[in-house]
Design goal:
- This protein is an alpha+beta fold.
- Helices cover 46% and strands 20% of the residues.
- It contains nine helices and eight strands.
- The strands form three sheets. The protein has a three-stranded antiparallel β-sheet with strand order 1-3-2.
- Helix 6 packs across helix 9 and helix 8 packs antiparallel against helix 9.
- It is elongated, with a radius of gyration of 19 Å.
- The chain starts with a strand and ends with a helix.
Amino acid sequence: MLMTYNECLTKYKNDYQIRRALEAGLIIKLEPGIYSDKNFEFETSIISKKYPHAVFTMRSAFYYLGLTDTIPEKYHLATDKDSSKITDKRVVQYFDNYQSLELGMINYEVDGGMIRMYGNERMLLELFRNKKRLPYDYYKEILQNFRKRIDKMDIAFIQDMALELPKSDIILEAFETEVL
């Protein structure tokens, strides 16, 4: 089980007992502030535990949702615009308004662990919001896969959510012309 330093403090009561648990092999320090009682943890779970208020988005979410077979080189996380900058070299950070950060967020199982990630409806809107930042072929691949899923998606939820996001008029126009 993954634990933060504070969770270890709760379990082992003080820093001395944490060091003793490390020496006895009861827990392993995976990286600063992250511990586990197992020898191996998936990096996705570690990133999720390390940044508990972040939401997986963009290339990470597109891949986990099966919209592309391109494995992202880094983890793409959305955080509140007032959050500190993430200095982890494995992470690409996107800043979002506090009001819209958790809009369309789901808990999703990846590599046996649960992560906070945007679902299909929100990621369709993110695709349109970030169209100019994505390579054209990558954009088209994801858009084609969304078109195959549109019957299973909640259109009213997409439209309501779009109104809550910046650039809502551009997003809705792209949704109507490119998907519907």
